[in-house]
């Protein structure tokens, strides 16, 4: 059991089923547009593993020092996210996984109140509900990865009740060869199910060379394509903070990244 700020159970499935482990040329930026990664002021519990099965659950009490009112209160970036509407950040996430030999499968769920302004006639925060499925299989000569996520944003009383409805999925692989070399690749797709139809595709590839058991050098390439005014982006380095619609990415722009570096694992 853990307390405080940590990763939501739904996120752990995304990390496990990503050939880049939420780094490098990952398609995680598409995923994060329809889910959430961390909970604040939360309690986290993971069951013991029994016959390959493990369950996780987390509950967040929300952001600290929230207002006692909903309507008309401003919250979220770029302001102080600790003074948002009542209930901001409150939610629950859970997952169930099974691991046996080369196989890993899992399912996750998320329901939480998003950060942001509640403007009349809305009567509460926008709520995000998401669920995902994940799987990996190790063939020894290659490891295969798959992820599917569905996410929706709804807000009671708002002029537009549903503001987000999208599916995000990816397929990937990692191929080690000649002891020290590894090739990685991922293809992801975001399906915007609203009338806006702002779909996006993600292409990622990478090469790693192990200098020893703890040190490697890498080369990663990634590209995202957008259409119909889409503004989805990709990760920028290990922090995964991409340039997107919230930071002025032009509609229909297709960002590309090339990353090179060395890494030491402690």
- Span of the ends, CA to CA: 25 Å
Tell me the strand order in the biggest sheet: 1-2-3-4-5-6-7-8-9-10-11-12
Name the average pLDDT. 87
Order of helices and strands: EHHEEEEEEEEEEE
Number of helices: 2
Radius of gyration: 19 Å
Describe what you observe in this structure.
The chain has helices at residues 9-16, 28-32; strands spanning 2-7, 38-46, 53-61, 90-100, 103-113, 127-138, 143-154, 162-177, 181-192, 200-210, 215-226, 256-264. The chain has 266 residues and is mostly beta strands. A 12-stranded antiparallel sheet has the order 1-2-3-4-5-6-7-8-9-10-11-12, with helices on one face. The longest helix is centred in the first third of the chain and has 8 residues, at 9-16. The radius of gyration is 19 Å and the shape is globular. The relative contact order is 0.16. The model is unreliable at 71-82 (pLDDT under 50).
What's the layout of helices and strands?
Elements: E1 2-7, H1 9-16, H2 28-32, E2 38-46, E3 53-61, E4 90-100, E5 103-113, E6 127-138, E7 143-154, E8 162-177, E9 181-192, E10 200-210, E11 215-226, E12 256-264
Antiparallel strand pairs: 1-2, 2-3, 3-4, 4-5, 5-6, 6-7, 7-8, 8-9, 9-10, 10-11, 11-12
Task: Describe the structure using short key phrases.
mainly beta, 12 strands, twelve-stranded antiparallel β-sheet, 266 residues, globular
Quickly describe the structure:
This protein is mainly β. It is built from two helices and twelve strands; from the N terminus they run βααβββββββββββ.
